[in-house]
Amino acid sequence: MANKTLKSLPNASANYAKIIKSMLPVVGKKVSKSKPLPDATYSINKLKIGRSHLQDYRRICGFADTGQVPPTYFAVLSQAVQMQMMVDEAFPFAMLGLVHIENSVTQYRRIADTETVAMSVSFANLRDHDKGKQFDFDTKVHDSDGELIWEGTSTYLSRQKTSSTKSKKDSPKAGKPTAEADDLHHIFAVPADIGRRYAKVSGDFNPIHIHPLTAKALGFPTAIAHGMWSKAKCLSLMDLPEAYTASVSFKLPILLPAEVELIGDSHRAMLENGEATFNLYNAKNDKPHLAGEITVINDK
Q: Fewest C-beta atoms under 10 Å: which of 55, 95, 143, 293?
């Protein structure tokens, strides 16, 4: 098992030339389905949150400055480590073709933005998917006393030819519920440059998010929004409890620019039922972009 301790978060932008270089030899080549994931964990023992970067993240995602770490922030920080791991280790898939299909974050208590924490990121759970192979990056964050205070799982798909006979009926369908008076309900614009702006904060400069021309070269009609931006934006519009899990499945991409509609259960319903669902749709044609669920963690 490859256990590596990093002194600080990798600089994703500075490391991007290396990342792009690692993509080029495998683009267009068939990837062996038999290769395992690396058995690797990368850790940062003392991670102090940068105030300026956090403020930039809050602004672009819509989180208020409450003195607490937004629920998705550690997921963004862990992406720099994930990219480093895919470059350094014997990663079996083409990085450029990976699709982020699911994300789950669990916050066990509110986390002050002044805390120094320890973060670890691991490869996990390689398995079959109807469209290829999927795997996870598992991230854990502990406080200075060693208590687990946050953990998250990001699931990625490597598209490959499979023998699956499933039809297109499993694809996301259009249609959205009617929001009731006390439901979570917001309609907001997603600007054309959100991909470039979010990339500067997240370090994720995947060409599908940056410009219409680079997105078209990779099969999209125009640039698309980052899935983790859309999740963060949805959560920033919610009244969240002390401890909870927020899980989402990413559906159809948000083609930029766009107008989207968030519909979900009310905060009252969340507290009464211990859970709530929320969904993000295209405001003009009702196509689904994101399906999410909040599960409240009760006090011990």
A: 55
